[in-house]
Specification:
Strand content: 35-45%
CATH topology: Jelly Rolls
Order of helices and strands: EEEEHEEEEEEEEEEHE
Number of domains: 1
CATH class: Mainly Beta
Helix content: under 10%
Number of strands: 15
Structural class: mainly beta
CATH superfamily: Jelly Rolls
Shape: globular
Radius of gyration: 16 Å
């Protein structure tokens, strides 16, 4: 398993090895010992799975506030996404900065998004499925969203073919300026 740090503290790309033969391939996508040896020592409590019918579906920028803040280990099992993490920790030197990575079923890459970061993704293909592990259970009272296209964040989502497909929650999300972050370093 190869673990690479991205430009923001704690955000990592995790690349499990694939072992192929004439039938296809096998991959160990999660190994607690291997990740702990690479400095990722987390206890995951829930697995989530999302399906997006259309390319151009945007989910985010989401967070779970304390005491239900979540670290996420995200991977794509069908299709591909542009995955984005935004540092929302007050007092962080990288507060308000973002990183992105392309995750696909083909490349097998995963992204670790630490608690205290906003998370979102844009589907690049129809019928995309994303699965992710989280370190805390979902809480409706602690659930929140920041506007995906906020000018202050200036996230580069790539070339969009029209408006993305959004949920009502994401259409009504607060701006970065309105967001009172519950996170700090």
């Amino acid at each position: 398993m190869n673990v690479t740090d991205l430009e923001l503290p704690g955000v990592k790309i995790i690349e499990p090895r694939r072992f192929g033969d004439d039938r296809g391939w096998f991959s160990e996508t999660y190994n607690q010992k291997a990740l702990a040896a690479a400095g990722v020592d987390l206890e995951f409590v829930q697995d989530n799975h999302s399906y997006s019918r259309d390319a151009g579906t945007l989910r985010g920028l989401h967070y779970q506030a304390p005491p239900f803040a979540q670290d996420k280990l995200v991977r794509v099992v069908r299709g591909s996404v542009l995955d984005v993490a935004v540092d929302a920790r007050k007092g962080s030197a990288s507060y308000g900065r973002w990183v992105s990575a392309t995750l696909s079923a083909e490349n097998g890459k995963q992204i670790l998004v630490p608690a205290g970061f906003l998370h979102g993704f844009l589907t690049l293909e129809p019928h995309t499925e994303v699965v992710y592990k989280v370190t805390s259970f979902y809480s409706a009272e602690c659930d929140g969203s920041v506007l995906w296209n906020d000018a202050d964040l200036a996230i580069d989502w790539g070339e969009l073919d029209g408006e993305p497909v959004l949920s009502g929650k994401d259409k009504d999300a607060v701006t970065w300026a309105e967001f009172d972050s519950p996170f700090s370093v």
